[in-house]
Design a protein that fits this description.
The protein is 30% helix and 27% strand. The protein has 335 residues and is of the alpha+beta class. It has two domains: 5-64 and 165-334, Aminopeptidase (3-Layer(aba) Sandwich); 66-150, Peptidase M42, domain 2 (Elongation Factor Tu (Ef-tu), domain 3). It is globular.
């Protein structure tokens, strides 16, 4: 499995609203292969033209959760708000990176025993120590609106598993772009469009912009989903989802039954492992936004199993990424 792209994506912070740096890395990696289109909010779109009428859009969001600097206290501690859903207590006592125009500023999140016992601890309670002694000193190094992420490492675990911040959803971006590269070498009738979208963790506006512009006849959204294979997770809520057992197809009111059925048939024919989850209502992914574009877009959701979502050490299995690439490639060859 080619890991270099995934590692490159994970190394670059990309909090919602601050995705331009990681899109530059992706464009440098992919630009020699495809027609590339970008927009003013940071989406990137890669196209393989086909001879048929179908236009199949594959998307994955390139943004990650994080914080945004809102100010500083008189004694130099940074104040923040959240960009995307998160658990405030995960930050207490953790190292962070503040991404400024002049480079990374490192800090530590203040922690006390009282904070850890506070069941109502929230983002308004988070303070970041960057070593400054005054408000003026702090704001001479950090600007309002700068993004903040966990200062976390990319680690290879046992059994082909990987631990990192931001696997939600850079694992999905990897799958989409690797599928695009493989399809370049194969015959395909449909026009295939691969996109790294922005803002999924906050507003999903990137997916809306892309889908409105490229006018797809159908769409495949690649994201991550919770696993049920460790203590504290409820199988009954979503279904049984485990690391290493393949991508997860979602049975949901907005997910197209015909496309899902075709994916399952291809997986069974080719011996590609896959799993199924069931949910009602919205999928809480870019699929919700794309589905409603124009006169309506048939959409499916293909998810990578992920442990510890929105934490500094999410865990995925590299085999699941490869299985997802194989399944999407099989589908596009037959579209």
């Amino acid at each position: 499995m080619r890991e270099d792209l995934l590692k490159m994506l994970l190394e670059v912070p990309s909090v919602s609203g601050d995705e331009f740096a990681v899109q530059k890395v992706l464009k440098e990696h992919m630009g020699n292969f495809y027609e590339v289109e970008t927009d003013s909010i940071g989406d990137s779109v890669y196209t393989l033209e086909g001879l048929g009428e179908k236009r199949i859009l594959m998307t994955s969001h390139i943004d990650e959760i994080g914080l945004l600097v809102t100010g500083a206290t008189g004694d130099g501690f940074l104040k923040v708000t959240n960009s995307g859903g998160f658990s405030a207590k995960l930050y207490a006592g953790h190292g962070v990176q503040i991404n400024t125009d002049n480079g990374v500023v490192y800090g530590s999140v203040v922690v006390t025993s009282k904070m850890l016992k506070n069941s109502e601890f929230s983002v308004s309670d988070i303070l970041i120590d960057i070593g400054a002694s005054t408000k003026e000193e702090a704001l001479s190094q950090v600007q309002l609106g700068n993004s903040v992420v966990f200062d976390a490492n990319i680690r290879q675990l046992m059994n082909e598993r990987i631990s990192a911040r931001g696997l939600d959803d850079k694992a999905g971006v990897y799958v989409v772009m690797e599928t695009m590269k493989r399809m370049k070498e194969k015959h395909h009738k449909a026009t295939i469009i691969g996109a790294g979208t922005v803002g999924e963790e906050t507003s999903k506006h990137g997916a809306g912009w892309v889908a409105n512009r490229v006018n797809p006849t159908e769409a495949i959204v690649v994201d991550v989903t919770y696993t049920s294979d460790y203590d504290g997770m409820r199988e009954a809520e979503w279904g049984e989802v485990e690391l290493g057992k393949g991508p997860v197809l979602c049975i949901n009111p907005i997910c197209d039954r015909g496309i899902n059925q075709k994916l399952m048939e291809l997986a069974n024919e080719r011996g590609i492992p896959y799993q199924v989850e069931v949910s009602g209502g919205r999928s809480c992914t870019d699929a919700d936004e794309i589905h409603m574009v124009g006169k309506g877009v048939p959409v499916v959701l293909v998810s990578i199993p992920l442990r510890y979502m929105h934490s500094p050490a999410e865990v995925a299995d590299r085999k699941d990424l490869e299985y997802a690439v194989e399944l999407l490639t099989a589908y596009l060859e037959n579209a």
